[in-house]
Design goal:
single chain, about 475 residues, alpha/beta, six-stranded parallel beta sheet, 15 helices, about 20% strand, globular, binds NADP nicotinamide-adenine-dinucleotide phosphate, NADP, oxidoreductase
Length: about 475
């Protein structure tokens, strides 16, 4: 049995995500001997040949097409369809059946919805109506973000797709979970007793998770102005990184056990109150400023397609508490934003200080130990230690042990890993419904408080690491954000 065989029905095949990430990812999967055919679906009036040339262009721009690319693109077919046109799905089914036989795809079907979120539910229901989901092999639904706009709409969406797919057939993409170093968090923790033994409130002072961008809103302006950093980043990627960093070792290293442990973390996040939203969540928006490369860039409200008085958050920082035995008393600081100083995602684990007295009274440079997991753009790990200053009488110097996996991945390899997992039926690195629901619950409370309680929007200059209040958030606790490395 060829378990790597499937028809992939890709909705949104002419879109940005497909072009930049999905086609390069599929090309790598093709090279790894997965057997698939792709039906690209979108409204525009392409035929198979034009579509194939578009896929080839995408490889030229974002990958490295070799001789086998000719054969690869022959596996691509195009089916023009407006997703709201229920009748048109019949022809899609015919084509899918035909390709299944032609390429020996074992009756398996992956439906990949790379579409605007308002189409997720209707497309799913239409697939069922047209009989596309009563195929003979497995069926799996891959669904892009955002999964809802709040808990209520997410639950509604979830109910709709559950009319067609079982939870185990639903693959909710959080592409951060496909990133090498995010997957590595568990290996670093659980395969290294020297870390897991001290991974708790006796030895850890605080944890800082940053995901910063240098870009502004760009072409996504009208989408972003209704979304903001809280919904776009905190609800999914940031809380997922918190969960992976804080979770207990699962009793078995299998999908549902791992997800259970992540859910427990999300459930243990101390519920917010109006005063904790005011004191421990920072809401920011960038103004005109100068980027490190010297470019002077517009403020958010001056960008095209943004409302003049927009209150959208382009930056969020927050302090979380995880109320369990392991983490009691250890703040988790998270921050994410646009137009910051550098593009970087990293997790900094700050360990508690060594006793200074009586041993190191005169050591001015004694720094806390830091373990830094670099997620992007560099992938790696560094550990900051103190050592004796060479050759002089006394004192210490900080030294850093570094591991870095230099690559020039533009993000398509995360999609490659995730699509491969889906073909294998492994949903570990996708979010289960209860994780999504708990994350929305947390984020909804903040969004509601911002709306109702007159909580200020703090402005920060483009090219900085966020508003002053984001620095005060840590200073109040006697900490500071570690500079990005
Ligand atoms: P996009 O560039 O706007 O593409 C949307 C696609 O949907 C196009 O192929 C469009 O093709 C098709 N489409 C629109 N209306 C349709 C209709 N009524 N019937 C059939 N097809 C229709 O969007 P995207 O950036 O690729 O994003 C796709 C999904 O991925 C979204 O859920 C987004 O949130 C998510 N996502 C994107 C990125 C990214 O980097 N782009 C990152 C993370 C998540 P036609 O115009 O030809 O119909």
């Amino acid at each position: 049995v060829n378990s790597n065989a499937t028809t992939i029905i890709l909705f949104g095949a002419t879109g940005d995500l497909a072009r930049r990430k999905l086609y390069p990812a599929l090309y790598s999967l093709y090279k790894k001997k997965n057997n698939f055919a792709v039906i690209g679906v979108a409204r525009r009036d392409y035929d198979h040949e034009v579509f194939r040339q578009n896929v080839y262009e995408s490889l030229k721009n974002h990958s490295n097409p070799e001789n086998d690319a000719e054969d690869f693109i022959k596996r691509f077919y195009y089916y023009p369809l407006d997703v709201k046109d229920t009748k048109a799905y019949d022809g899609l089914k015919e084509l899918a059946d035909q390709l299944n036989d032609q390429f020996d795809l074992q009756g398996n079907r992956m439906f990949y919805l790379s579409l605007a979120p308002e189409f997720f539910a209707p497309v799913t229901l239409n697939l069922k109506q047209a009989g596309l989901t009563t195929n003979t092999g497995w069926k799996r639904l891959v669904i892009e973000k955002p999964f809802g706009r709040d808990l209520e709409s997410a639950a509604e969406l979830n109910n709709s797709i559950h009319e067609v797919f079982e939870e185990s057939e639903i693959y909710r993409i959080d592409h951060y979970l496909g990133k090498e170093m995010v997957q590595n968090i568990q290996v670093i923790r659980f395969a290294n007793p020297i870390f897991e033994g001290i991974w708790n409130n006796r030895y850890i002072s605080n944890i800082q998770i940053t995901s910063s961008e240098t870009l502004g809103v760009g072409e996504r302006a009208s989408y972003y102005d209704h979304t903001g950093a809280l919904m776009d980043m905190i609800q999914n990627h940031m809380l997922q990184m918190v969960a992976l960093t804080a979770m207990e070792p699962p009793s078995r290293f299998v999908t549902e056990d791992i997800r259970d442990e992540k859910v427990k973390v999300l459930r243990s996040i101390r519920p917010l109150t109006d005063s904790t939203v005011a004191n421990s969540v920072v809401r920011g928006q960038y103004t005109r400023g100068t980027m490190p490369n010297g470019d002077v860039v517009k403020g958010y409200r001056e960008e095209e397609n943004i409302k003049e008085q927009s209150m959208t958050d382009t930056f969020v920082a927050a302090k979380l508490h995880i109320d369990n035995f392991r983490w009691a008393g250890v703040p988790f600081y998270i921050r994410t934003g646009k137009r910051m100083t550098a593009k970087s995602t990293e997790i900094v684990v700050q360990f508690k200080d060594a006793p200074k007295r009586p041993y190191f009274n005169n050591f001015n440079d004694l720094q806390p130990n830091l373990l830094v997991i670099h997620v992007q753009p560099d992938e790696g790990l560094s550990l900051k230690l103190n050592a004796k200053k060479f050759s002089t009488g006394g004192g210490s110097i900080p030294i850093t042990m570094n591991f870095s996996n230099s690559n020039n991945d533009d993000g398509s390899s995360a999609y490659e890993r995730l699509i491969q997992d889906c073909i294998h039926g492994d949903s570990t690195n996708f979010t289960r419904w209860d994780e999504v629901a708990l994350s929305w619950q947390f984020v909804d409370y903040i969004a509601e408080a911002w709306k109702e309680r007159n909580i200020p929007l703090d402005r920060y200059e483009a090219g900085t690491m966020g508003p002053a209040s984001a620095h005060e958030l840590l200073a109040k606790d006697g900490h500071h954000w570690w500079p990005l490395t």
